[in-house]
Specification:
Elements: E1 3-11, H1 18-34, E2 39-41, H2 56-59, H3 62-70, H4 73-87, E3 90-100, E4 103-111, E5 117-121, H5 127-132, E6 143-146, E7 149-153, H6 162-170, E8 175-179, H7 185-202, E9 206-214, E10 223-224, E11 229-231, E12 243-246, E13 253-259, H8 261-270, H9 275-278
Parallel strand pairs: 1-2, 1-9, 2-3, 7-8, 8-9
Antiparallel strand pairs: 1-13, 3-4, 4-5, 6-7, 9-10, 9-11, 11-12
Helix pairs in contact: 1-4, 6-7
C-alpha cells in the first residue's frame, strides 16, 4: 500500500535541557503527523544534540558527550515511544550512541504505533568513528515487520556496501531507511550515490534523512551537508533520474512524499531491466574472479 513518509532534513539545535529537546521533537513530529505521515525518519547522531545541555566541558569532548548522553537513554526511549503511540505511526528516531559493555554502538531505533521498538546498529565505521577509540561496529543485520511493509535500515556509511542492502532485500525488505550525517559535500555525495546504487541494484525505494546546518559547539555535529531524498530505480513508471523526491533547499526542512512499494514492484517485474532478479548472474563460477586473458594471434 502507498505510505506517506516524512523525512527530516534536520537543523542541529543546541538544547539547554532534555525537556527543550523533547519539546522540539514533539512539535516537529506532531506537525508532520497532522499532514498525514505514517512513517517519520530522523537523521544519524540526533541524540548528540543532548550533549549541549551538559555544558562545554562535556559537549566539547566526544567521550564525555557519549557518557552523558547515554544517561538519557531511558528518557529517549520514553519520548519516542510515546510519540509513536500518540500519533499512531512508525518513527525512526535517528541514532543514539548506546553503551554496550565498555564501548558505544551507533544505534538506529525504530518505534511502532504500540510503543514497542527495535534497532539496527551501524555495521561499518567511518575513519572518524574508528579513531574515536570508543565506538564499535554492530554485528547483526535486521529487517523489521510493520503494517507498512517490511523495512530495512542502513546507517549512513552502511549504505555504501551493496551486500548489506542485498541481504535485506532477500529477507523481504520493501523500503530501506537511511539515517545519515555527513560533514562534507564529498560525504553527502558518497551517501547519495550509495542510496541510488542500492535502489538500482535491488529495485526498491531508499529513503535518506540528513542533518543540516552548522553547529559550532559540537566537534561531531559542526558542519552538515546533504539533502533529504527518496531514491528509486530509473525505469518504467518511475522518474528517469531515479529521484522520486528531494529537498531542494538547504537548512531545516521536511520532505513529505508518498511512496508506493507496489508501483516499484511493478516496475521491478515489468521494467526494461531486472537487476534484482539478475543479481545471481554475478555468482556464476566463470565470473567470480577476473582472469588475465591471453591475446590471440591474428
Amino acid at each position: 500500500m502507498p505510505v506517506t513518509v516524512a523525512i527530516a532534513q534536520w537543523q542541529i539545535g543546541a538544547p539547554a535541557h532534555f525537556d527543550d529537546f523533547a519539546a522540539r521533537i514533539e512539535r516537529e513530529v506532531a506537525a508532520v503527523a497532522a499532514r498525514g505521515a505514517q512513517l517519520v525518519l530522523l537523521p544519524e547522531y540526533l541524540a548528540l544534540e543532548l550533549a549541549h545541555g551538559f555544558g562545554a566541558k562535556v559537549y566539547g569532548d566526544l567521550h564525555r558527550s557519549l557518557e552523558a548522553v547515554d544517561g538519557c537513554h531511558a528518557a529517549w526511549v520514553d519520548l519516542f515511544a510515546s510519540l509513536a503511540r500518540r500519533h499512531a505511526l512508525y518513527l525512526l528516531a535517528g541514532t543514539f550512541l548506546r553503551r554496550v559493555g565498555a564501548d558505544f554502538r551507533n544505534r538506529a531505533m525504530l518505534f511502532g504505533p504500540t510503543g514497542r521498538h527495535a534497532w539496527q546498529d551501524k555495521l561499518r565505521l567511518t575513519a572518524y568513528e574508528k579513531t574515536a577509540g570508543c565506538i564499535v561496529p554492530g554485528d547483526a543485520l535486521h529487517v523489521f515487520d510493520t503494517e507498512l511493509g517490511r523495512l530495512g535500515i542502513a546507517i549512513c556509511y552502511d549504505i555504501e556496501f551493496p551486500l548489506f542492502a542485498r541481504a535485506q532485500y532477500e529477507a523481504g525488505a520493501e523500503l530501506i531507511l537511511v539515517p545519515s550525517c555527513t560533514d562534507t559535500p564529498a560525504g553527502a555525495t558518497r551517501v547519495r550515490i550509495g542510496c541510488q546504487a542500492r535502489a538500482l541494484e535491488n529495485q526498491l525505494p531508499v529513503l535518506c534523512a540528513v542533518t543540516a546546518g552548522t553547529s559550532d559547539w559540537s566537534p561531531v555535529l559542526d558542519v552538515n551537508t546533504g539533502h533529504a531524498a527518496v531514491y528509486v530505480q530509473p525505469d518504467r513508471g518511475l522518474p528517469e533520474e531515479g529521484v522520486l523526491a528531494a529537498c531542494g533547499e538547504t537548512g531545516h526542512a521536511w520532505l513529505m512524499v508518498t511512496v508506493d512499494p507496489a508501483a516499484v514492484r511493478a516496475a521491478r517485474a515489468e521494467g526494461q531491466v531486472g537487476v534484482a532478479a539478475d543479481w545471481d548472474g554475478q555468482l556464476a563460477p566463470g565470473v567470480q574472479r577476473a582472469r588475465l586473458a591471453a591475446w590471440q594471434q591474428p
